[in-house]
Specification:
This protein is an alpha/beta fold and 336 residues long. The chain has 2 domains: 158 residues, Aspartate/ornithine carbamoyltransferase (Rossmann fold, 3-Layer(aba) Sandwich), CATH 3.40.50.1370; 149 residues, 3-Layer(aba) Sandwich (Rossmann fold). The protein is 38% helix and 14% strand. Helix 1 packs across helix 12. It is globular, with a radius of gyration of 20 Å.
């Protein structure tokens, strides 16, 4: 493995091996495996779990890390091409990325969607440009429409809980939120559950359908794995027999790049807060998942988040365990 930027770049067998490695490293740590190795991380956007879990994973394997947040103690970076750099940014990504990569054995980059041009975001233009100029192994710490580390951690969480793959019912539900959030987590999670072979339902209100390329990618993965993917706005029908309800908000795709219109649309959707009633038609053992951070009593009610269904804390810990496996494989496992 030479990079980790998309689950789809790995076969199901390779992902299974990676998940097995994550479990083994968690049970039997290798505190000197990456001694002398360096992880660099470039964050264009905020982080809590991603930065902490990667630093912890690298430290537990004996390596070290550095974190760069452009404009916070470092130069501001310019990402646009062909412009006259006479503004606040003192350096361009075309120099910054390869320089940082030269200091590290593996480089991670987080760069959220621009949120203006849906086509550009779906094509991951800015992230893929940085990938093309990065000479070190690259890890996607979240891009415009992907968050593979989150998705892999969620996969492991369901494996740990013995949530069935074949025949397992996974509901990705839009949830209330005051802001239009990126598509990265919902896109990654629906693809992950489809790759896992689950029957996936995207539950969302009118105006929040996931873009066709995201849904088609998930349907293609489901066709290969024996799963299925569909969308609906009918909560009762969507949650019937569900094993997992995974809540996440995202911006209106019908009003993409128009925040005022998006705010007007979501102003009537306060009832899309996940509470215990959402599990009325689910299986008795159904679990609740969310990637965090989460707004209590906006996205999900306290009764669910603090209740026995919630698996958000194991999800968060599994970020560290799967990322340890990713780093181990990138730096010690050879390439293909």
């Amino acid at each position: 493995m030479k990079r980790f930027i998309d689950l789809a770049e790995n076969t199901p067998e390779e992902l299974a091996e990676l998940l097995a490695l994550a479990g083994r490293l968690d049970r039997h740590p290798e505190p000197q495996a990456l001694t002398g190795k360096v992880l660099g991380m470039l964050f264009f956007n905020p982080s809590l779990r991603t930065v902490a879990s990667f630093q912890a994973a690298m430290g537990r394997l004996g390596g070290s890390s550095f974190v760069i947040t452009p404009g916070a103690g470092t130069w501001k970076l310019e990402a646009r091409n062909g412009i006259v750099m006479d503004g606040d940014a003192a350096e361009h990504i075309r120099e910054a990325v390869p320089v940082l990569a030269s200091y590290a054995d593996v480089l991670g980059i987080r760069a959220f969607a621009g949120g203006i041009d849906l086509e550009a975001d779906l094509e991951e233009r800015k992230f893929m440009e940085m990938a093309s100029i990065c000479p070190a192994p690259l890890v996607n710490l979240e891009s415009a429409v992907n968050h593979p580390c989150q998705a892999l951690g969620d996969w492991k969480t369901m494996d740990d809980l013995e949530v069935p793959a074949s025949g397992g019912r996974f509901v990705l539900s839009w949830a209330n939120h005051p802001h239009a959030l990126p598509l990265a987590v919902p896109a990654a999670v629906v693809h992950m559950a489809a790759m896992r072979g689950m029957d996936v339902t995207v539950l969302r209100p009118e105006g929040y359908a996931l873009p066709d390329p995201i849904m088609q990618r998930a349907r293609d993965a489901a066709a290969r794995s024996g799963g299925s993917v569909r969308e609906t706005d009918d909560r009762k029908e969507a949650t019937e027999g569900a094993h997992v309800i995974y809540a996440k908000s995202w911006g209106s795709t019908s009003h993409y790049g128009r925040p005022a219109d998006d705010r007007n649309l979501r102003s009537n959707l306060e009832h899309w807060t996940v509470d215990e009633s959402w599990f009325d038609n689910a299986l008795a053992e159904a679990i609740f998942m969310h990637c965090l951070p989460v707004r209590r009593n906006v996205v999900v009610a306290d009764e669910v988040l603090d209740g026995p269904r919630s698996r958000v804390l194991p999800q968060a810990r599994n970020r560290m365990t799967v990322q340890a496996a990713i780093l181990h494989r990138l730096l010690l496992g050879g390439g293909r």
